[in-house]
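WARN no homologs supplied; continuing
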Amino acid sequence: MTHRPWERAGTWLLRALTYAMAAGVVYVLGEIVVRGLPVIDLEFLTAAPREGGLAGGIFPAIVGTLWLVVGTALVSLPLGMGAAIYFSEYARDSRWSRWLRTGVITLAGIPSIVFGLFGLGLFVIFLGFGASVLAGSLTLAFMILPVIIVASEEALRTVPQAYREASLALGATRWQTIRHAVLPYALPGMLTGSILGIGRAAGETAPILFTVAAFYLPDLPSSVFDQVMALPYHLFILATQHPDPAARPMQYGTALVLVALVLGVNAVAIVARARFRRRYRS
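OK structure emitted
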């Protein structure tokens, strides 16, 4: 009985903090929507920028961002999910595997600008890819690999061990057990964490600053070795090189499109998770 007032006070404190965070998010999103929505029209979404980004549209930046998102997904999903399957299903509890897990967790906390310098040194200069979609996608993929590995491994661990033991007892091989008895139930969680990581990559500026982003490039890319414009970098340029009030409508419009793109990627994760859950629970 003596703990109830403290429990009640703690509950109200946590509730107040939650409401405060939600109010902050709503305010920021509301500000972006109110100021950015009047700017968005057909020309803004389909035209190239003019006058240093103060006029025209952001179509090349949208296309460049989509190229980077697709390239990042194609590289990071197989590598991240494969590494998670190895850690969860094949790796023994040895010093080597513990070191690898520690390295993955450490990489998750490294600032994104460090990955940008890593991509510049390895992909742009050493491997000779130059500032290109390939170099930018590889840099972003390496940046979100720790997130995908950790999320996928946690999803694999939620599958009961009895499923594996029953499959192996019926004569299935290790890979058949993983494919038919483990992955179908872990895949919703694996996809959710992976796509959320890709959504984070879509909004990053520092990793693409040295590897792919161009200040002004109205031509659309024709191969993975082309340099492109990107929404995060375009927004960075508008905010830092054009601080005058005349540029603010374009800044908020670009920010709204970028937020919509990231929310769209997150929505894909939610829909994929729900679909896989319905498929394997029925």
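The CA atoms of residues 33 and 256 lie 6 Å apart.
OK
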